[in-house]
Write a structure and sequence with these properties.
Layout: E1 3-6, H1 8-19, H2 35-45, E2 50-53, H3 67-75, E3 78-79, H4 84-89, H5 93-106, E4 112-116, H6 119-127, E5 131-134, H7 135-139
Parallel strand pairs: 1-2, 1-4, 2-3, 4-5
Length: about 140
């Protein structure tokens, strides 16, 4: 089983693009992406068995029209989390913060790949010899 844990910005691209490809550029948090990026993401997601999320990566606000799409995506995903004490005790917590450190802890298995556009998170995952994809690298091809 291969699982893909999607970081916040990429998850938002997936949710907003699933709501409507034409809305990607209109949302502040997804305006750096376009419909081609969404299509690339959908193709990449298709090669995994499950999408994984953590509570920390879920946005605390989305326009009420888009919120049901988030609910649908999350209902189809597997939710993982690491205990707060483990996240806070991790050596990279002061540098990465709670959400990114929680991602590192929640994906700490050989079945989960993390997709992010955050270079610091990406480099930490690689340093721990964990599977990681930098979405910006996919966009470059």
């Amino acid at each position: 089983m291969s699982r893909l844990l999607i970081d916040t910005n990429i998850l938002l691209l997936y949710v907003v693009g699933s709501f409507g490809r034409d809305t990607i550029k209109r949302f502040k948090r997804t305006s750096a992406f376009d419909a081609d990026d969404f299509d690339l993401l959908v193709r990449h997601i298709g090669s995994y068995t499950n999408i994984v999320v953590t509570g920390g990566i879920l946005p605390d606000y989305l326009h009420e029209a888009v919120a049901p799409t988030l609910v649908s995506v999350v209902n189809d995903a597997v939710e993982e989390h690491a205990p707060a004490a483990e996240v806070l005790a991790d050596r990279v917590f002061p540098r990465l913060g709670f959400t990114d450190c929680g991602i590192v802890r929640a994906a700490n298995d050989r079945e989960t790949t993390v997709m992010t556009d955050d270079v610091q998170l990406y480099l930490e995952l690689l340093a721990r010899e964990m599977a990681a994809v930098n979405f910006n690298h996919l966009r470059a091809f």
